[in-house]
């Protein structure tokens, strides 16, 4: 079984609630919206990602016979619920922000409109999918803003939280502007450019570092990227200079060297000089090793002659903010708007739309969150993507989403383009929505 | 396809290195060891977890025809490599610490002995599997130490990093001593006890909070757990007291109430009094809402009358330390010990064993890391688990590992049982290993 597509990838409370809903025949239309309550530390914007996986999950969702049998064996569930789950398919509507869209707290990024039990059952996996990819795209975008035209590569599969996290991190970071990933399966699954170098073990497995470089070059003549910090970085650079003429006679060029430890700026400057003086001005330098957007900024500011960067753990775990404070909340049931008023966790009720308004120079000025009944001027950010369980369009290409992300980043106000800002973006709650919240609060005891 | 079991869940550099190894016929026996370089912040020990998934991956690994075809289509790989990958199976040996074992930096938790290309190919997924579950078990164990006999439940699937992370987090936290999880599929896959309550949406979908409580009780008469903070916590507790007699007439008891926001200690005390005075002394209180081991310690120290705790995001993302500084390093090739000397990242060479020595009272005293040729006194922590690609024993039950973990936690010195310590555990590097490192350094240029 592929656990990633199971409907039982959910919290038990969804099933206990479903049992009550089914028995009480509470199956009228519910409206849930997913939004982020507040920005994580060190973030000034979010980038929507993961919608494609949500839609695929909704299209494919069904409870298998083995799962039904197991549910029955637990003795927890009545036959009413088991009958409801058997043959259940997603038949609802979805409105959502397109992947690559930049958004902010309090703005719904996705709305599900479906019979209450169905809309409830899918909560856990929808949050699970959108929280992760949105978090990674938002993290990756920060490095992209810092790096400008310098290519960035995802090297973080090994410390991503499992297989799916590694694949989704490759996807979300590519969407946000990374050049590619080292994760081979992400290349196969999502057609993302893949990048690879060599490991220290390759050098260690040889008794001679130069022999290691030569063997690698012969095996990958089109893509010679040599790791030079296993023993002594500058000494290894000299070895490459000495090796290069004989490789060149065989038509092989040293495309790149990789630095992975120590003071990267200092090593890069020394290695650049050795390569240049050794007749290898076209050999590029790739840097890696515990990098994040702050290290990147520091290295770029120091004018280190580094041609590309690989980012691993900090990216794929979103190390400084490994979750979003996101929630999937019931905003309307059977035509009646509602909201939660728990301390510190109150939400805005009803179906909402987000309108973005722009400055004269085209940059984002502010957003307005309003009820769908009271539209504002500006660009609406939520669009219908699924009706009655069917997609409204074929899935967009990842490259298309990547172009949207780049266009969005280009329109960010300067204040939000730096790694830290103390001025949050202006998200306004329209009067119509404030009025609705007051009305809802008066109705509920 | 189930992406979780693909051999292409690896870094591209493994394949580029493999191409060179195969072409140079460097297929002699390699020894790789996986260890953690240093403790993450706020950790004083680690708990080994994830071995079962590593062994399952090694038993099942093979490159599919579709994967071979895709690899060929990239134009990056020679037919020598593609032929090597076709029909490749894991034929090596594995020695490892059993799951639930407590260990420390510099101590290998796993050793792979296999032909060099094979041992290299599996690096990425092995780290990916062991890093995550070990990190989660180590995080969960902290809450277990704080909570003592009070049950803890994993509520963190929604913000875990994808499907696999959610499932593995449920497994690793149960192994470390949690009572169970809300993740239904983890119940089915790993036979972990599952727990469930209700969501705010359940209350909101009703126009009346008492009606919501009653409907839930009728649907789950054996397991009535009511969430009481949707609007006003104490008012909801009074509603339950008023509802209880009519439920009791139908043979239904209110087993538990759940608090999920606000000052949990204050609410728990007030709610306890309302329940006790209302004739519901046996109704228990479950607390949740952004909890971690520090909140747990504070709530327990405040004598809050809370009977169980649910922990979500902080657990399943290991929020304060979302990765381990772990590495899988070549320690020997073709009978020749080796090590990496990169700045700040040097490793100890050769095949190693860890011996644990105990104090008079049975607690851990110190560990010694030594070469396998020079055994020390004490308990050896690494054991053979796979030979020639076959397991040496049937997979142990998760409950068995859980008992081992509990026994290990009971033997921790008091200094390591607190949430913060400034005295690291004593891990000694045996003279034999220091001598070997010197010898290796003299041989390599």
Can you give keywords for this protein?
seven-stranded antiparallel beta sheet; nicotinate phosphoribosyltransferase; 445 residues; alpha/beta; homodimer; 16 helices; 2 domains; six-stranded parallel beta sheet; TIM Barrel; 19 strands
Protein architecture, described:
- The structure is a homodimer of 445-residue chains.
- Chain A starts with 11 loop residues before the first helix and ends with a helix.
- Chain A is elongated, with a radius of gyration of 26 Å.
- Chain A is built from 16 helices and 19 strands.
- Chain A has two domains: 3-136 and 321-443, nicotinate phosphoribosyltransferase (Alpha-Beta Barrel), CATH 3.20.140; 147-316, Alpha-Beta Barrel (TIM Barrel), CATH 3.20.20.
- The first copy, chain A, is of the alpha/beta class and 445 residues long.
- Helices cover 40% and strands 18% of the residues of chain A.
- In chain A, β17 and β18 (390-391) form a beta hairpin.
- Chain A has helices at residues 12-23, 51-60, 65-73, 79-85, 116-121, 123-147, 163-175, 184-190, 200-205, 209-219, 233-249, 264-277, 293-301, 313-316, 398-410, 431-443, and strands at residues 29-36, 46-47, 93-96, 102-103, 110-115, 152-154, 180-181, 225-227, 256-259, 284-287, 308-311, 326-333, 336-337, 352-358, 364-371, 379-380, 383-387, 390-391, 427-429.
- In chain A, α6 packs across α7, α6 runs parallel beside α13 and α10 (209-219) crosses α11 (233-249).
- Chains A and B meet through α1, α6, α7, α8 and α9 of A and α1, α6, α7, α8 and α9 of B.
């Amino acid at each position: 079984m592929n656990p990633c597509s199971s409907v039982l990838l959910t919290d038990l409370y969804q099933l206990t609630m479903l049992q009550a809903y089914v028995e009480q025949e509470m199956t009228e239309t519910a409206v849930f919206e997913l939004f982020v309550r507040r920005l994580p530390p060190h973030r000034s914007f979010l980038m929507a990602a993961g919608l494609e996986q949500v839609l695929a999950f909704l299209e494919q969702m069904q409870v298998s016979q083995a799962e039904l049998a197991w549910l029955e064996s637990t003795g927890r569930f009545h036959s009413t619920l088991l009958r409801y789950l058997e043959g259940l398919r997603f038949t609802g509507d979805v409105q959502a922000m397109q992947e690559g869209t930049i958004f902010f707290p309090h703005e719904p990024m996705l709305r599900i409109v479906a019979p209450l039990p169905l809309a409830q059952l899918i909560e856990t996996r929808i949050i699970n999918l959108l929280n992760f990819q949105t978090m990674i795209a938002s993290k990756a975008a920060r490095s992209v803003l810092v790096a400008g035209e310098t290519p960035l590569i995802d090297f973080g599969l090994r410390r991503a939280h499992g297989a799916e996290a590694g694949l989704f991190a490759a996807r979300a970071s590519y969407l946000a502007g990374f050049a590619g990933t080292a994760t081979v399966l992400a290349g196969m699954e999502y057609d993302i450019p893949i990048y690879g170098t060599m490991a220290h073990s390759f050098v260690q497995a040889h008794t001679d570092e130069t022999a290691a470089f030569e063997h690698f070059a012969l095996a990958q003549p089109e893509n010679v990227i040599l790791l030079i910090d296993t023993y002594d970085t500058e000494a290894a650079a000299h070895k490459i200079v000495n090796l290069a003429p004989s490789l060149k006679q065989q038509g092989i060029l040293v495309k790149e060297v990789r630095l992975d430890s120590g003071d990267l700026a200092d090593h890069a400057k020394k290695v650049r000089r050795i390569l240049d003086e050794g007749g290898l001005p076209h050999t590029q330098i790739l840097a890696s090793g515990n990098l994040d957007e702050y290290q990147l900024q520091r290295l770029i500011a120091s004018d280190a002659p580094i041609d590309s960067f690989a980012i691993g753990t900090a990216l794929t775990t979103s190390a400084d903010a490994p979750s979003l404070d996101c929630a999937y909340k019931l905003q309307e049931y059977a035509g009646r708007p509602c909201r939660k008023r728990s301390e510190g966790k109150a939400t805005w009720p009803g179906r909402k739309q987000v309108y973005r308004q722009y400055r004269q120079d085209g940059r984002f000025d502010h957003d307005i969150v309003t009820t769908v009944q009271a539209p504002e001027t500006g660009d609406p950010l939520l669009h219908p993507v699924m009706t009655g369980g069917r997609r409204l369009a074929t899935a967009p290409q990842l490259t298309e989403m990547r172009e949207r992300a780049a266009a969005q980043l280009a329109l960010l106000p300067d204040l939000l383009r730096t790694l830290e800002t103390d001025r949050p973006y202006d998200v306004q709650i329209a009067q119509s929505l404030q009025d609705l919240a007051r009305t809802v609060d008066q109705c509920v005891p």
